[in-house]
Amino acid sequence: MRILLATVTYAPIVNGQAVFTCNLANRLAQQGHSVAVIYPSQDLEEAETLENDVLRVGVKSLNLEFWHPDAYTTLWMDPAVERLFERFRPQLVHIHDHYPLCWNVEQVARRRGIPLVGTNHFVPDNVTHYLPYSNQLQPFFDWVLWRWLLQIYNGLDCVTVQSQTAAQALRQAGLTAPLMPVSCGIDTEHFHVDAAVDRVACRRRFGLDAERVTFLFVGRMDAEKRLDVLIRALAALDRPDIALAIAGKGTAGEQWRKLAQELGVADRVHFLGYVPEDDLPTLLNSVDVFAMPSDAELLSIATLEAMACGRPVLAARARALPELVEDGVNWRLFRPGDVRDAAAALRSLVDAPSRWPQMGAASLQRAAQHDWANVVEKYESIYRSLQKTRGDRRRTTEKVLSSTGVPLNP
């Protein structure tokens, strides 16, 4: 099958949407499909390459660095989109957001009668942190941002999301298109429990104290990740035996460094910068607990990767994180944004080292359900089902998709 993916963000940019779209493209190509990906060029000019048997088409773009250093956009109508459709002749189109390039791709696909799938990676929280007066105008911003997304996604043949929580949020926002939860997927061969890791040597390499109980966060250092909650919780505990390691980069990094200094915990909060994916499994296997304080996760690939490495997890009880973390099983959830509750959860984890192996085993079992092999199989099933329809697809889509074995309209 000839499959065209469209996205506003793509590798080498590192965020959930970019990582997922790149992995999906590569794995579909490995299954023998012809795959092309179109996205705003990070070099600003048009560029085309073939990588891992995936045709990568970067469209001339504008850098929105005043908004975010990794933000790019295209014009609403770009002739490069029509040229790619003429040349590649996709049999199915899969968009990953509602921004100008994907809107353009959706319009062309609809005119040509090509089946359309859309995956949503968006919640308003991803944007409102960067808008003025967001605290006062949050309900208004939420309404406007959801309406923008729904203008496109309600016209698709099928919408996928990463979790039941994400599905419920879209339904509540007003989505009427067929909706299916499908995990973002993780590579359980790459991320796995590795007893051979020299924990002391690995910690020394990253400047971490082997004697301290170490919590690790991996992800973008942006406002919605709420790392300020963990830093404040660490300061509130006044426990010199606990350290926090932060792997990633982002717009809030300098702000959180200053916060750690102001609170007197700079010696126990370690900013590791961007850690390459090849090094992540070793790092994950060397720490004690993974931490995800974000209140805007529709799934959290980073948390799943840590779980696949057998780590207990400390997470906010927000969005989809409770689907991955269960209190007392793989271990603690705390009230989002609540420093006192986060500190209590930190303490309870540190004081129960005998239970860490049990918690890690529970994490491992849950993570196995999200293996990429299962994810690709589900997407192929969705694609094939949509390919079978003809004429007025929207009236038959739900009937056809019900045969894929993936839960429909949760």
Descriptive account of the structure:
The protein is α/β, with parallel strands linked by helices. Strands 3-4-2-1-7-8-9-10 form an eight-stranded mixed β-sheet, sandwiched between helices. It has a six-stranded parallel β-sheet with strand order 13-12-11-14-15-16, sandwiched between helices. It has a two-stranded antiparallel sheet with strand order 5-6. Helix 11 links the parallel strand 14 and strand 15. It is globular.
Structural class: alpha/beta
- The number of helical elements comes to 16
- Average per-residue pLDDT, rounded, comes to 90
The biggest sheet amounts to: 8 strands, mixed
Q: Main sheet: which strands, in order across?
A: 3-4-2-1-7-8-9-10
What proportion strand?
Answer: 15-25%
User: How much is the radius of gyration in Å?
Assistant: 22 Å
Q: Could you name the ranges where pLDDT drops below 50 across 5 or more consecutive residues?
A: none
Number of strands: 16
Shape estimate = globular
Portion in helices: 40-55%
Task: Quote the distance from N terminus to C terminus.
Answer: 28 Å
